[in-house]
């Protein structure tokens, strides 16, 4: 198989797509074997990127992978540098796909009597680990929806972790440390997380933005997750673009080589975020409802066509919701939804007005046949809400959401629609219903 550099070249030129072939989050590279992409730089691509740097006499990791990537990372690093101890690691944020690779090295250190690794992370990370422990069921459930694939059992996704390696050194705005011949300048900007941080290694002109760059529309909208900061994210990207990095190792997606490309990718990503935030704020300042904002914000199509800005994971429209939530509140400005009647009661009224369930199901089928899947979803939803026991309504609903999932570029949308489809196949509107 070709090396990372060649893969990166094909990706940049659009010869490989990020929607399926090189989705930023899928384990799709080299069967989990790390690769030395430059002298002293060992890159691993699992669900996320984890990079190990040789500082001369010790190792430093910039992000450390998910729990089930940890053995492969450890094995790969030890094949590459059998004797150097892991002196330090940086967590770019608290997400579980970035923070579990230190454990095997610390076990090894304990056995050989070496000091533990020093882990650096933003000061908000511990609070988020605490939140994760409190919200385990929720996090398992929402990720089951987000990462749904057809036919998966309708159960929460595994056991959400409850033991975390807390950072040893926390910081608010920035921290700099040296290890061997290398300097690590770690800076904080809010973006995907309250605790997002990015690392600059000047001797190598290496930039590790964490999830502030993922070779796709930034994960700034995610419908089921805590607050994200679209505007501040762009500010961070502009700072990174000014560094003239020669190597960018993203949190997800693949490395980019060369200063021009890196600057372009970071600046374009910042521009996308700035335009969505700017338009949303302008409309909010006119007192617009969320519905109006969603209809009127124009997302530049040329940016979404860039190989590094395809909506492969998050959907650009979701970003608007997060901006709304940050500057506004949970209410979308519709008076009937302020203190709403139950959805099922509303649906029953509409279905009765339409002359009964059969007509509603028939209209949903007509919309589906005409390719108007967005409207078909709304209509069939009323049908199953009004008559949850109707096999006809569930059969059609399963079909409509399956087709809707099939036309999504965003894997997040695909997951949610697939979960809805599979739920109806089991006779439920939501798979987690008792
Ligand atoms: Zn991540």
Beta-strand content bin: 5-15%
Query: Can you count the beta strands?
Result: 13
Shape: globular
Radius of gyration: 23 Å
**Average pLDDT, to the nearest integer?**
96
Could you tell me which ligands this complex binds, including any ions or cofactors?
Answer: zinc ion
Q: Any low-confidence stretches, pLDDT <50, length ≥5?
A: none
Distance between the termini: 47 Å
Adjacency order of strands in the biggest sheet: 1-2-3-4-5-6-7
Number of helices: 15
Query: Considering the protein shown, what is the CATH homologous superfamily of the largest domain?
Result: Metallo-beta-lactamase domain
Strand/helix succession: HEEEEHEHEHHEEEEEHEEHHHHHHHHH
* CATH structural class of the largest domain: Alpha Beta
The CATH architecture of the largest domain: 4-Layer Sandwich
Outline the biggest β-sheet: 7 strands, mixed
CATH level 3 topology of the largest domain: Metallo-beta-lactamase, Chain A
Q: Report the helical percentage.
A: 40-55%
């Amino acid at each position: 198989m070709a090396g990372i550099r060649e893969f990166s070249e094909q990706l940049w030129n659009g010869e490989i797509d990020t929607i399926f072939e090189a989705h930023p989050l899928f384990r799709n590279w080299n069967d989990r074997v790390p690769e030395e992409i430059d002298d002293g730089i060992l890159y691993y691509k699992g669900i996320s990127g984890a990079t190990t740097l040789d500082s001369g006499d010790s190792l430093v990791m910039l992000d450390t992978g998910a729990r089930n990537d940890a053995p492969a990372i450890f094995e790969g690093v030890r094949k590459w540098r059998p004797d150097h101890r892991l002196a330090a690691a940086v967590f770019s944020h608290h997400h579980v796909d970035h923070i579990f690779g230190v454990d095997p090295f610390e076990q090894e250190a304990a056995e050989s009597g070496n000091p533990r690794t020093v882990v650096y992370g933003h000061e908000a990370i511990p609070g988020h680990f605490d939140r994760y422990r409190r919200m385990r069921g929720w996090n398992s459930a929402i990720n089951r929806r987000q990462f749904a694939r057809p036919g998966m059992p309708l159960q929460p996704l595994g056991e959400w972790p409850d033991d975390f390696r807390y950072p040893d050194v926390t910081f608010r705005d920035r921290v700099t440390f040296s290890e061997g011949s290398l300097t690590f300048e770690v800076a904080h900007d809010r973006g995907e997380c309250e605790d997002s941080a990015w690392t600059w290694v000047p001797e190598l002109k290496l930039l590790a933005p964490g999830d502030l760059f993922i070779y796709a529309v930034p994960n700034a909208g995610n419908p089921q997750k805590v607050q994200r900061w679209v505007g501040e994210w762009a500010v961070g990207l502009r700072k990174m673009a000014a560094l003239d990095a020669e190597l960018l190792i993203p949190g997800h997606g693949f490395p980019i080589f060369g200063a021009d490309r890196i600057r372009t990718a970071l600046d374009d990503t910042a521009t996308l975020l700035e335009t969505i935030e700017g338009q949303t704020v302008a409309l909010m300042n006119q007192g617009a409802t969320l519905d109006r904002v969603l209809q009127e914000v124009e997302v530049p199509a040329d940016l979404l066509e860039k190989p590094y800005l395809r909506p492969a994971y998050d959907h650009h429209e979701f970003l608007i919701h997060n901006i709304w939530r940050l500057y506004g509140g949970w209410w979308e400005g519709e008076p009937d939804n302020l203190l709403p009647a139950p959805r099922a009661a509303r649906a029953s009224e509409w279905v009765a007005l339409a002359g009964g369930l059969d007509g509603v199901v028939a209209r949903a089928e007509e919309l589906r046949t005409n390719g108007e899947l967005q409207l078909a979803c709304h209509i069939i939803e009323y049908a199953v809400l009004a008559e949850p026991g109707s096999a006809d309504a569930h059969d059609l609903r399963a079909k409509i959401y399956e087709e809707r999932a099939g036309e999504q570029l965003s894997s997040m949308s695909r997951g949610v629609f697939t979960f809805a489809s599979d739920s109806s196949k089991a006779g439920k509107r939501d798979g987690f219903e008792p």
